[in-house]
């Protein structure tokens, strides 16, 4: 046994770690050592913070309040319907008001802001068939920009003004179609507005029956374009097309697809099955239960 070594190990073990009064070390370091470490981290974090603030600042400088710097530009925007139903299915029974009243309520709420009175108050009575261009002149902002009136009455039989049930009760339902908003999109040229056409899947063609479109020919007039964004064009009313099913077969599934036709928008090929089109299913029953 080596006594000396034993002794040394012993003293080292007995040295208090938390506060060593002999060497004035706290947790194994002297005050100066702790001070330097704290100073290092202080400087380090101030530097990191500074970098973060600087990067944010430079990034924010490059952003424009009025239009997005980056935007997903589909060549042809998607379309959506109202009412949407669950999973793009409009199913109801003409004899059961409870089964269709939710659809007409959706339409009532959706069309509220299109009331002529609201449109006349908020928006301009624009000249149709031309783009409503309101560019900024250089650095001078032309904001806020005006928007064109889209009167609820232009949806005629589908406006809900004369027929409060939008044809649902009579088994001739209206479906509203809108084109997704894309900032700066010019969806036509030569005064020809894009328009909507709807058709049925092959086996459902006979069941779909005749359709009526409102406004006439199912057009989204050019005067509602381009769209400049929510912030620049605060009162923008998205144009709508209503499709009314005049003679749809009862008690059968009818799969409908509506497409946008335009002389500038490329037809959404098979590659993107949502570009410029929307599909939905109708099933109108008429059975007393
Ligand atoms: C729009 O008009 C309808 C029918 O006249 C009315 O019930 C509704 O409250 C109006 N909505 C708005 C937002 O003005
Ligand atoms: C938006 O509508 C409000 C309410 O009618 C109107 O006071 C305002 O001037 C409109 N703004 C624009 C840019 O059209
Ligand atoms: C909207 O309706 C008002 C009257 O209700 C009419 O003066 C105005 O010309 C209409 N606007 C459009 C774009 O049809
Ligand atoms: C609808 O289309 C037809 C044929 O393309 C055209 O003669 C008619 O003027 C159009 N109606 C409206 C209101 O645009
Ligand atoms: C309605 O559709 C039926 C077939 O589903 C057809 O026999 C009838 O002639 C159509 N009526 C009109 C007015 O088109």
Ordered list of secondary-structure elements with their pairings:
Layout: H1 3-14, E1 19-20, E2 25-26, E3 29-30, H2 31-61, E4 79-82, E5 89-93, H3 97-111, H4 116-122, E6 174-179, E7 195-200, H5 205-208, E8 211-214, E9 241-245, E10 253-261, E11 277-285
Parallel strand pairs: 5-11
Antiparallel strand pairs: 1-2, 2-3, 4-6, 6-9, 7-10, 8-9, 10-11
One 2-acetamido-2-deoxy-beta-D-glucopyranose (NAG) binds at residues 112-113, 115, 118.
CATH superfamily of the largest domain: Na, k-atpase alpha subunit
Q: How many strand units?
A: 11
**Secondary structural class:** alpha+beta
| Ligands, deduplicated | 2-acetamido-2-deoxy-beta-D-glucopyranose
Main beta sheet strand tally, sense and closure:
4 strands, antiparallel
CATH architecture of the largest domain: Sandwich
Q: And the CATH topology of the largest domain? A: Immunoglobulin-like
């Amino acid at each position: 046994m080596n006594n000396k070594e034993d002794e040394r190990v012993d003293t080292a073990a007995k040295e208090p770690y938390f506060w060593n009064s002999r060497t004035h070390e706290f947790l194994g370091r002297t005050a100066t050592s702790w001070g330097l470490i704290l100073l290092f981290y202080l400087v380090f974090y101030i530097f990191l913070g500074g970098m973060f603030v600087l990067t944010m600042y430079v990034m924010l400088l490059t952003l424009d309040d009025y239009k997005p710097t980056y935007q997903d530009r589909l060549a042809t925007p998607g379309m959506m319907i109202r009412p949407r139903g669950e999973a793009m299915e409009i199913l109801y029974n003409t004899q059961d008001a409870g089964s269709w009243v939710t659809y007409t309520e959706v339409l009532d709420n959706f069309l509220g802001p299109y009331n002529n009175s609201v449109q006349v108050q908020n928006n301009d009575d624009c000249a149709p068939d031309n783009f409503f261009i309101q560019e900024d002149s250089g650095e001078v902002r032309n904001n806020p920009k005006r928007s064109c009136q889209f009167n609820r009455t232009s949806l005629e039989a589908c406006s809900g003004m004369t027929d409060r049930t939008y044809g649902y009760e009579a088994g001739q339902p209206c479906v509203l179609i809108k084109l997704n908003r894309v900032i700066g999109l010019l969806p036509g040229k030569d005064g020809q507005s894009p328009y909507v056409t709807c058709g049925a899947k092959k086996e459902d063609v006979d069941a779909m029956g005749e359709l009526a479109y409102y406004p006439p020919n199912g057009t989204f007039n050019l005067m509602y374009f381009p769209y400049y964004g929510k912030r620049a064009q605060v009162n923008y009313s998205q144009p709508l097309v209503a499709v009314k099913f005049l003679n749809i077969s009862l008690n059968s599934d009818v799969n409908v697809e509506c497409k946008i036709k335009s002389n500038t928008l490329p037809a959404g090929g098979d590659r993107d099955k949502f570009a410029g089109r929307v599909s939905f299913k109708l099933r109108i029953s008429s059975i007393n239960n």
